[in-house]
Amino acid sequence: MSFRLFSSPRVFTAALLALAAFAFPRSASAENVAIGCDADPDWCKIAPISYSRSDSLPIEWAFDTGWVPANSPLQLHLWAGVYATTRVSLEGSLETTWPEALVLRTPGKPEGGLLGYHYGVELGAQAKIKVTVAGKDYEWTGDVPYVPQVDFQIEGQQVFDAWGFDPGVTLSSKTEPVTIIQVGVGDIVGGSIPGIDGGIEVDLAMELAATYRTQRLVIETTDGKAVSGGDITKPDGESSTKYLNGPAIDLDVHPEGTVDYDGVIHLIPAFWVELLGQNWNIPIVDIPIAFPITQTKWVFDKQRVHVPLPDVVLSVDEIDFGDVEVGQKSMVGFGVWNAGEARAKVTFVSSSPDLFPAWDMSADVETGITFDSAVRFIPTKNGPFEGTLFIASNDPSDPVQMIKLKGVGFGGPDDASLQDITQEGGCACRVADEGSTQSSAGAMALAGLGLFLSMFRRAQKK
Questions:
Q1: What is the pLDDT of residues 280-315, one digit of tens each?
Q2: Which of 18-32, 103-117, 150-164, 320-334 has the lowest average pLDDT?
């Protein structure tokens, strides 16, 4: 077993984080682990997230008509209980991109939403008769046996594109009147009023509409704090979160929305009686009863997403080549450790490529691996030299890191020994100063660094 000594303080911190990740893997508590996006796997991770919830409220209620019609010789008293279940399912993804920041998006899955409901009615009834025939009063009040002709239920479902942001998705249903009670009066009055005949019928119809609307997608850190970019409130919305360093990040995601209900129960009773040659009946009426609660808030359970990230750690932040003879080359190695959980894409750029050339142009460093690279010092004249080696990568917390370079050239000709060279045309020219040449090369390299960084991600994707 071999060990590498890292001198940077950041290395020690990264090592502790990596050890903690190994000993207590955060993915163990995550419901979904993100993988590389198809188009950009080294700069983007994506994980599926899905939610489902059923609720028996709010439309689980009872109503009572009282005695209707008022002041009629024939009256009915109807009451009912409505049992209900509403279900919403949602499917989408949490997408994390960088290096500008940890940008968070939540693309919804086409046809990844489902709104459904299932409602039924259980009805009870009483009847009241108060009639006068030939000066004699006949009265009776009693229960109407509930022998439903059908098991009245209404159900439906609607598929939609998640997440169902404003205006949301509406599922509506309407039934034709259905006879649910049909009973002969003589059968229930019995011997109370001899010779009575007639019947009782109750038809029922229902109109129902439910609208689900996602108000926001909440993204939180594992300590329950909202990410700095806030909630996502529209289909193409995005958020962001601060990220210092480490091998990965865990995020908790959940939708919050509302369900609006709009429904009416229609009771359509009919009651007629024949006694001693006389007839009575109540007019057929539609008794509409609206649902009392119109909106509820739905908060889905949180789902944790584990996002693996690259974490590039350099073994040094400065290299001193010391004294190197002019015309000779000196090479010093350094390590590039990927302490993260995702592959690191690394590129090396020197501010003075002729003076301090990088040994490698680029490297892919898998998780947990240390890539051995190097930089050389090739002095072209006497004196001290300084430069910078830029290490650009897809590390979201440190996309560009630097190693300071310095060294001293010796043993070369003194500046005073450089002579003017007279050409035949009489032009007096001086041999170009190598220091100024290096300075120009360094300036060009630094000027091109900004362009390089902007093109780096694009090049790595190809």
A1: 998 778 889 887 767 889 999 999 999 999 999 999
A2: 18-32
Which pairs with CB-CB distance under 8 Å and at least 24 residues apart come from 451-459?
A: 452/347, 452/349, 452/392, 453/392, 453/399, 453/400, 456/347, 456/392, 457/43, 457/99, 457/394
Of 332, 446, 336, residue with least CA distance to 398: 336
**Residue type (1 letter), 220:** E
HSE-CB for 144 with a 13 A CA cutoff: 28
Nearest to 100 by CA among 396, 453, 400: 396
Cα separation, 145 vs 128, whole angstroms: 14
Closest-CA residue to 77 (of 126, 122, 30, 42): 126
Taking each continuous run of H as one helix and of E as one strand, the counts in the chain are 3, 28
Measured CA to CA, the distance from residue 282 to residue 271 in angstroms comes to 6
Q: Note whether 380 and 438 are within 8 A (CB).
A: yes
Residue 341, Cβ density class (10 Å: 0-12 exposed, 13-18 middle, ≥19 buried): buried
Six-digit token string for 417? 């020994």
224: helix, coil or strand?
Answer: coil
Please provide the size of the chain in residues.
Answer: 462
84-132 residue pLDDT tens: 889 999 999 999 999 777 999 999 999 999 999 888 888 889 999 999 9
Say what the pTM is.
Answer: 0.75
Closest CA to 345 of 369, 318, 364: 364
Q: E strands, 144-285, where? A: 153-160, 169-174, 178-184, 197-221, 238-241, 248-275, 278-282
By the 8 A CB rule, do 316 and 334 touch? yes
Structural contact between residues 305 and 29, judged by C-beta atoms closer than 8 angstroms: no
Contact (CB, 8 A) for 381 and 412? yes
If we measure between CA atoms, which residue out of 372, 370, 362 comes closest to residue 393?
362
Exposure of 273 in the CB half-sphere (CA atoms within 13 A): 28
